[in-house]
From TrEMBL:
<keyword id="KW-1015">Disulfide bond</keyword>
<dbReference type="Pfam" id="PF00355">
    <property type="entry name" value="Rieske"/>
</dbReference>
<keyword id="KW-0408">Iron</keyword>
<dbReference type="InterPro" id="IPR014349">
    <property type="entry name" value="Rieske_Fe-S_prot"/>
</dbReference>
<dbReference type="InterPro" id="IPR017941">
    <property type="entry name" value="Rieske_2Fe-2S"/>
</dbReference>
<protein>
    <recommendedName>
        <fullName>Cytochrome bc1 complex Rieske iron-sulfur subunit</fullName>
    </recommendedName>
</protein>
<keyword id="KW-0479">Metal-binding</keyword>
<keyword id="KW-0411">Iron-sulfur</keyword>
<keyword id="KW-0001">2Fe-2S</keyword>
<feature type="domain" description="Rieske">
    <location>
        <begin position="62"/>
        <end position="156"/>
    </location>
</feature>
<dbReference type="InterPro" id="IPR006311">
    <property type="entry name" value="TAT_signal"/>
</dbReference>
<dbReference type="InterPro" id="IPR036922">
    <property type="entry name" value="Rieske_2Fe-2S_sf"/>
</dbReference>
<comment type="function">
    <text>Iron-sulfur subunit of the cytochrome bc1 complex, an essential component of the respiratory electron transport chain required for ATP synthesis. The bc1 complex catalyzes the oxidation of menaquinol and the reduction of cytochrome c in the respiratory chain. The bc1 complex operates through a Q-cycle mechanism that couples electron transfer to generation of the proton gradient that drives ATP synthesis.</text>
</comment>
Length: 157
């Protein structure tokens, strides 16, 4: 596991085989973190892991949120029964549910100020309309899950 950001990459250690773990941590603390972050954020890692990342789909249709909770033009992160999803409403009355698991290296994404979908690990940004990456190292869209409006509730899965 990456000691810098918590991602699954072991590259920062394997790229410096002569460096001890303690020395590596010290080097990161001393400002060499850019090297480790670059290793975690390489497109090679993205290609290697995106297909193997579990998107965390609800096991069955699940009541995730109230329709009124999702701002028009925005996004919320909804959690129910141990599963989190990103629910968006890009235009009034149009809803989408996307995985909350970043396709870069599997970090949990967040709803930045209820406007954008952002990953805190390496700063990928995803579209609220189709989950497509719009910035950062992620190259693959967030998977979309089936969504159904039942009354004033949003069911996902
Ligand atoms: S895990 Fe790297 S940007 Fe999300």
């Amino acid at each position: 596991m990456c000691n810098t950001c918590g991602c699954s990459s072991a590259k920062e250690i394997t790229e410096n085989p002569g460096m001890t773990r303690r020395a590596a941590v010290g080097a990161v603390s001393a400002g060499a973190g850019a090297l480790a972050l670059t290793a975690c954020g390489s497109s090679m890692d993205s290609d290697a892991t995106a297909a193997s990342i579990d998107p965390g789909a609800p096991a069955e249709p699940t009541d995730m949120a109230a329709v009124a909770d999702v701002p028009v033009g925005g996004v919320i992160k909804a959690t129910a029964q141990g599963t989190s999803v990103m629910i968006t409403q890009p235009t009034e009355g149009t809803f989408h549910a996307f995985s909350s698991v970043c396709t870069h290296q599997g970090c949990q994404v967040n709803a930045q100020k209820e406007k954008t979908i952002n990953c805190p690990c390496h700063a990928s940004v995803f579209s609220t309309e189709d989950g497509a990456p719009q910035g950062g190292p992620a190259e693959t869209a967030l998977p979309e899950f089936p969504l159904e409006i039942k009354g004033d509730r949003i069911w996902v899965g």
